[in-house]
Design goal:
The chain has eleven helices and 32 strands. The chain has about 600 residues and is of the alpha+beta class. The protein folds into three domains: about 375 residues, L-arginine/glycine Amidinotransferase, Chain A, CATH 3.75.10.10; about 110 residues, Immunoglobulin-like, CATH 2.60.40; about 80 residues, Immunoglobulin-like (Sandwich), CATH 2.60.40.1930. The strands form eight sheets. Strands 18, 19, 20, 21, 22, 23, 24 and 25 form an eight-stranded antiparallel sheet that branches. Strands 1-5-6-7 form a four-stranded mixed sheet, with helices on both faces. Helix 9 links the parallel strand 12 and strand 13.
Length: about 600
């Protein structure tokens, strides 16, 4: 692997435009000096030739954030009180590697912030930098042949910050990992890490910023890639075979999805929820509906969407274009979640939602009032490094049981390790204070590495808690979730009579009403089920279909364009297994 020559780094400092250094700390977006420079130039400064510029010769799998990590990397540059809290919490889980330009100063400051960096798990990598936002410029962990060997992939950073753009190679050298780099045509690709989530199974999520920055007339002077060209590069370097791209939020200056949504596992998306009238609320809701209408999980099931209310500041939400506080810009580091916090009256609700969504995880709140105005929070200033020897367990959690209680509940897990799997065990209970019972899992499908076992029938009204344990031939052992048995997957068995009495879905108040443009239809489903949402006139004649398919459990929002209808009075009609509901709406 190529070694990093620091003589080049210092040359980069000398020849980099002076404007890059005038605003410090640099925001997550562009500084005024950078915007001026970009208006006068069309190129990417920095070390474009670093890294391995050909794609890996072996199949690639992008790592998901909830997988096992060996290290977290940060850049010690600004917002140091927040970074110190991150180091203090994360070093209990992983090695924390701190990129810094002055070792003595960095260590002294850590001590002043109360961080015991000498007790272990805190390491230092000296290298120059431009900014703290390592999520966006840091290298992304990938595995060759799925679980065989760890490597890193580095995209062109979408900021004119040449020192930041070469830190991935310094990190690669530090860990002894190859760094694949999308810097040379035909594989040149600009992509910030905050606009990127992978489920570890070949699906990726971004905003359409990925197309804007790599298509015709892009500001970086890189190749003009079609959407198919972008997808091809992501498949070759990152193992992505399905790429979900959301419409950019119109008032969000950076278009990084990690500010308002986050994958919690292969099937669950945490989405920030803002009140009606807050900038970008409507587009966030439309994006989630787009996902639910057009995509299923890698297991072929509907996505679960967990909503979390986003907090105001001093009782108000900022005007259009200003950074919004966020509870989703968090970081899952093995058994701990680092959560941005702001005000206790709002934080308590966020903590409860996170604890319910991630049972057994240690949720650590870190006050982010000092950084949010710069356009980011915790996820923006940390970067993960996966373990060298992953034992991968992928699983589709069981849904609640509604209707007839089956004789058993089949649990499937896709389990892989480079040495092979010696065995797997399913543990389950209906009382987490009691002992778990165990079942040997069988290799049901060798070609896909699917292991299976069935939990025997349990009484109606029970909640079943379970987790999966795997042994590799090498002797390595892992549980899923990583926090088991304190954390678990669970499902509820509804009593048959209660299931019959509870309506499957409820039509909320349609807004705005009167309507003239994009209009929202809220629906709350007690359980998932086949549902149709239609618009009809007052004579009951169907005007259009808004949704038809399997509605996921929980709250969902559906949208139609009222400006496509003639002015008048209409009905929004919801048909589900629980019956028919209707609501009048006026179109102006």
């Amino acid at each position: 692997m190529k070694k990093l020559f620091y003589t080049f780094l210092f040359s980069a400092v000398l020849f980099a435009p002076a404007a890059f250094c005038q605003t410090d700390p640099l925001p997550r977006g562009f500084s005024p000096e950078e915007l001026l420079w970009l208006s006068q130039n069309k190129s990417v400064p920095g070390a474009a030739a670093f890294g391995i510029t050909d794609p890996p010769s072996l199949p690639v799998r992008a790592m998901a954030e909830w997988e096992e990590m060996q290290a977290m990397v940060i850049t010690w540059r600004s917002y140091k009180p927040i970074l110190a809290q991150i180091v203090q919490a994360a070093k209990e889980e992983v090695r924390v590697v701190i990129v810094n330009s002055n070792l003595a100063t960095c260590q002294s400051e850590l001590t002043n912030f109360g961080v015991d960096w000498q007790s272990g798990n805190v390491e230092f990598l000296q290298a120059p930098s431009n900014s703290v936002w390592i999520r966006d410029y840091g290298a992304n962990p990938i595995y060759l042949n799925g679980v065989d060997s760890l490597a890193l992939v580095d995209w062109i950073y979408n900021r004119p910050r040449p020192l930041d753009d070469i830190i991935p190679d310094a990190v690669g050298d530090y860990f002894g990992l190859p760094v694949y780099s999308t810097t040379v045509a035909p594989y040149d690709l600009t992509h910030p890490g905050g606009n990127n989530f992978s489920d570890g199974m070949g699906t990726n999520f971004s905003s359409k910023l990925i197309l804007d920055e790599n298509g015709p007339l892009n500001q970086w002077g890189t190749s003009n890639h079609t959407e198919e060209g972008v997808d091809s590069i992501m498949e070759r370097f990152y193992g992505i075979d399905r790429y979900v791209k959301f419409t950019n939020l119109p008032y969000d200056g950076i278009h990084h999805i990690d500010m308002h949504m986050k994958l919690l596992n292969e099937t669950t998306l945490l989405v920030g929820e803002y009140p009606e009238g807050v900038p970008d609320r409507a587009q966030i809701e439309a994006n989630i509906q787009y996902l639910l209408d057009n995509f299923t999980t890698p297991f072929g099931t509907p996505y679960r969407v967990v909503r979390i209310p986003m907090p105001p500041e001093n009782g108000k939400y900022p005007s259009m274009g200003a950074p919004l506080r966020t509870y989703v810009n968090s970081f899952i580091v093995n058994k701990t979640v680092l959560l941005p916090t702001y005000e206790l009256q709002y934080d308590t609700t966020a903590l409860r939602i996170w604890q319910e969504a991630m049972p057994g995880y240690n949720i650590v709140g870190i006050n982010c009032n000092g950084i949010i105005d710069a356009g980011g929070a915790i996820h923006c200033i940390v970067k993960e490094v996966g373990v060298q020897d992953p034992l991968l367990i992928q699983h589709n959690p069981l849904d609640d049981i509604v209707g007839a209680n089956p004789p058993g509940y089949e649990v499937n897990a896709w389990i892989r390790h480079r040495s092979g799997i010696a065995g797997a065990t399913l543990y389950y209970t209906t009382d987490t204070a009691a002992a778990y019972q165990s079942l040997d899992m069988a290799l049901a499908q060798p070609d896909s590495n699917r292991w299976s076992a069935s939990i025997p029938q349990q009484p109606e009204g029970s909640t079943v808690y379970y987790y999966i344990h795997a042994n590799a031939n090498s002797g390595k052992q892992v549980v899923r979730p990583l926090v088991a048995p304190e954390g678990y997957f669970d499902f509820y068995i509804y009593p048959a009579t209660a299931a019959e009495e509870v309506p499957t879905s409820s039509l909320g108040k349609v807004f705005p009403n009167p309507a003239s443009a994009l209009t929202c239809i809220p629906v709350e489903a007690t359980v998932g089920g086949e549902t149709v949402i239609e618009i009809s006139d007052l004579l009951g004649r169907k005007v259009g279909t808004v949704f038809s398919g399997t509605l996921p459990a929980g709250v969902s929002r559906h949208y139609f364009r009222a400006d496509g209808l003639a002015a008048g009075v209409y009905q929004v009609v919801l048909r589900s297994e629980g019956g028919v509901q209707a609501q009048k709406i006026i179109v102006k």
